[in-house]
Amino acid sequence: MSNLQLQRAKDFIKELSEGYGVSGYEFSLNHPIMQKFREYADEVHTDRFGNIYSLKKGTSGRYKMMLAAHMDEIGLMIKEIDQSGFLRFTTVGGVDPRTLVGQEVIIHGREDIIGIIGAIPPHLQTGGGEDAFKMEDLGIDVGMPLAQASGMIQIGDTVTLSRQGYELLNHHFAGKSLDDRAGVAVMAVCLEELGSLYHRHDVIAVTTAQEEVGIRGALTSAYTINPDLAVAIDVTHGSTPDTKGVVNIELGKGPAVALGPNIHPAIYKGLVEAAKEHRLPYQPEPIPGASGTDAWAIQVTQAGVPTGLVSIPLRYMHTSVETLDLQDVINCGKLLAYFIASLPDDLEGYLCY
User: Fold this and answer.
1) Are 279 and 273 in contact (CB under 8 A)?
2) Within a 10 A sphere around the Cβ of 5, how many other Cβ atoms?
């Protein structure tokens, strides 16, 4: 694994992490994503839903293989401007209110406006402020009176956390929205690797929209493509000292390869065999029910799609300091490329039960 490859992955993840694109408003990410994928893909285009398709042609093009990773992020939406100019908000996606107090945010109104989510300090609370705040108790302070705020901010404007991504020691990287913009970077690594490998089948890497509010982009794009097989790329919970016994996936030990009813057995087997053959680390991840990822929607599209799932171990999911190991990102992309290159000419026989 070259330092140059790690640096490129870090730069792309950092750019995407610092961008904004709450579910349904991902369009500001189109330019950097399409620009990156044009380096490796034969064709890149978007659809009316906001998904981005990057086609890497195979030597035969007999079958279509779909990759999917979502670009949207959880966020907030303005629902009220009170008489003092404070902004009341609701959530878009699974936001934990415990993570919001004291956060710097960006309101995407007529122009981007910086705000602070404030709350009553513990000095003024009965009981010393030990209880978690409720969403309705929080507000965004933009330092404006009502008249000024109303002229620049509207009900329905989206809000994202303001956070720069930064590298920690040992190739660890922290930032917001790594769920799942790190998965988008994995697809770029995969297509780059495929440039030097022989692969028979067409690969369509889809950067999906609106995963966080109901895996919608995966549903529409999979219906459009109707692929012969697919692999979704997402994140999974990485272990920390306080998750002992609950989370067993670790950072730096390779991507998690899912198995369970959402996963076609042949795809799981093929991914594991590719990892072993090319000496890439991986971690089995049993998922006995719904995976809650794009794989869940893709699997039941049209007449059904044989589907797999690989995930990047991630700490502190759905916070502004999500943390991953960049080596896992590279290994995930390489694993997918080697798996794709290993697929036989006849996928009908390969995928039959």
Assistant:
1) no
2) 18
Compute the 3-state secondary structure of the chain and give helix, strand, coil in percent, each to the nearest 5: 35, 25, 40
Domain ranges in the chain are: 3-73+176-351, 75-161
Q: Among residues 225, 194, 191, 198, which one has the least CA distance to residue 66? A: 225
> Catalytic: 211?
yes
Catalytic residue among 26, 73, 211, 322: 211
Whether 335 and 255 have beta carbons less than 8 Å apart is answered as yes
Measured CA to CA, the distance from residue 136 to residue 147 in angstroms comes to 22
* Cα gap 204→230, rounded to integer Å: 9
- Residue 166 to residue 262: CA distance in whole angstroms: 34
The pTM of this model reads 0.94
The CATH code of the domain at 3-73+176-351 is 3.40.630.10
Which CATH architecture describes the domain 75-161?
A: Beta Barrel (2.40)
CB 237 within 8 Å of CB 314: yes
Question: What is the C-alpha separation between 24 and 6, in angstroms, rounded?
Answer: 30
What are the distances in angstroms from CA 32 to CA 17, 37, 184, 261, 317?
11, 9, 11, 35, 24
DSSP strand pairing (202-208 vs 283-286) = unpaired
Divide the 353 residues of the chain into consecutive groups of 10 and give the mean pLDDT of each group. Answer: 87 97 96 98 97 96 96 96 92 92 93 89 59 81 90 95 94 97 98 96 98 97 97 96 87 97 97 98 95 96 97 96 98 98 92 79
Tell me, what amino acid is at 260?
A: G
